[in-house]
Each structure stands twice: as structure tokens, then as C-alpha cells.
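Saturday, quiet lab. Running sequence design on the C-alpha cells for the scaffold JK sent over.
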């Protein structure tokens, strides 16, 4: 499935938000070895971690496909996407697509 650069930027943002959620939960709950998590905390954390993993996997595949279609190196495309996210570009306001 062909994707636009703006879609890749949106996907990167979603993956970043999911990662932030995982970090927030880790900070809030503390290490489970020191204070055992409740079942609800464990489920919440595992769901957040799976969401981050899934977003990242889909993004990776999409970046690989996009780079191949554009005839560019995958790592360059990934760097361009991350740069666009950092600079608030994409989704109608930045790098090409």
C-alpha cells in the first residue's frame, strides 16, 4: 500500500505518543521488582507496550516500502520523517510527499 510522506509523519507521531505513554506508566508505577504492580497496572502497561510495539512495526514497514518506492535509502527516509516530526512538519505543512 502506497503511503505519503505526511502519513509516515503521522505514523511516527503515533509511535512517539505510544512510547511516551509507556514511559509515563513506568515512571508512575515504579519498578515492579520494588513494588509489585496490581493486575490492572500490569494490564495497562502491557497494553501500552503492545500499542507502542505495533505502531513501531507498522511504521518500520511503511518507511521501508516508501523508501523503496522513492528510490531512497531507508535510513535517510526514516531520518527525514523524524526530522519532520521534530520540526512540526508533515500533515500539510512541510517535507514533500
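Result came back. Writing it out in full:
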Amino acid at each position: 500500500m502506497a503511503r505519503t510522506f505526511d502519513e509516515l509523519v503521522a505514523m511516527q507521531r503515533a509511535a512517539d505518543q505510544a512510547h511516551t505513554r509507556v514511559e509515563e506508566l513506568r515512571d508512575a508505577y515504579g519498578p515492579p521488582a520494588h513494588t509489585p504492580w496490581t493486575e490492572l497496572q500490569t494490564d495497562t502497561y502491557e497494553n501500552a507496550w503492545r500499542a507502542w510495539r505495533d505502531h513501531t512495526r507498522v511504521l518500520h514497514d511503511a518507511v521501508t516500502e516508501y523508501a523503496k518506492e522513492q528510490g531512497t535509502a531507508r535510513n535517510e527516509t526514516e531520518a527525514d520523517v523524524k526530522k519532520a516530526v521534530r520540526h512540526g512538519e508533515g500533515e500539510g505543512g512541510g517535507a514533500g510527499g
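Notes for JK: Residues 5-30+40-86 form one domain. Residues 92-97 have pLDDT under 50 and may be disordered. Ask whether to fix the surface positions before the next round.
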